[in-house]
Write a structure and sequence with these properties.
By secondary structure, the chain is mainly alpha-helical. The chain has a single domain (about 20-180), classed as DNA polymerase, domain 1 (Orthogonal Bundle). Helix content is about 65%, strand content about 5%. It has helices at about 20-25, 30-35, 45-55, 60-75, 80-90, 90-105, 105-125, 145-180, and strands spanning about 125, 135. The chain has a two-stranded antiparallel sheet with strand order 1-2. Helix 3 (about 45-55) crosses helix 4 and helix 5 crosses helix 6. The protein starts with 17 loop residues before the first helix and ends in an 8-residue tail after the last helix. GO terms for molecular function: DNA binding; DNA-directed DNA polymerase activity.
């Protein structure tokens, strides 16, 4: 347990579904964007879980939501049907079908991942939303396992690296606001 010194307070903050929001933005997927733009939607992963499980939102259990979250990122970041089947405890053909159904509903995600990989193949690197570059020397490798790993890393970096960029920008902004305040101090 962390305890702050006398006179000090810890500040904790969290972006709500930041990677999925960035994915929606970068992919411009209309269905995914619609979920975030709907004022009635407070938790996109619960909505996705209810669509997947075929139940009402109020019937979605926390375990369903967490499983859906892992599955969504697994599909987007290129986990194979074997790994997905392992996580879900279902046969590989069912896992493959789930993945395909998800990518059919949110077509922009497949387009985004394909474009990201193609761009990386041409340039040899990918770029985060704030311009940070990550070179991926194996993106055009003849070794298919090295190439597949680089392809997953390309998509992963663009989304997760962009999320990290936004979090760092927010921390700097909060720190600047606190240090410029006459009643607050930060260290």
């Amino acid at each position: 347990m962390f305890v702050s010194s006398d006179g000090w307070t810890f500040l904790a903050a969290d972006f709500s579904q930041v990677e999925l929001r960035i994915l929606a933005h970068l992919s411009s997927d209309p269905e995914l964007l619609k979920l975030f733009q709907d004022p009635e939607t407070s938790d996109v992963f619960s909505i996705l879980a209810c669509q997947w499980k075929g139940v009402r939102v109020d019937q979605v259990k926390n375990a369903d939501r967490e499983q859906t979250k892992r599955i969504v990122y697994a599909v987007v970041y290129g986990a194979g049907k074997g790994r997905l089947s392992e996580w879900l405890g279902i046969p590989a053909n069912q896992a493959s079908q789930f993945s395909e159904n998800f990518l059919q509903k949110y077509k922009g995600l497949r387009t985004f991942t394909q474009k990201t990989i193609q761009q990386c193949q041409m340039q040899g690197y990918v770029v985060s939303i704030m311009g940070r570059k990550r070179p991926l020397p194996h993106i055009n490798s003849q070794d298919c396992s090295l190439r597949a790993q680089a392809e997953r890393q390309a998509v992963n970096f663009v989304v997760q690296g962009s999320a990290a960029d936004l979090c760092k920008m927010a921390m700097i902004k909060v720190f600047t606001c606190i240090t410029s305040s006459s009643s607050l101090t930060a260290r």
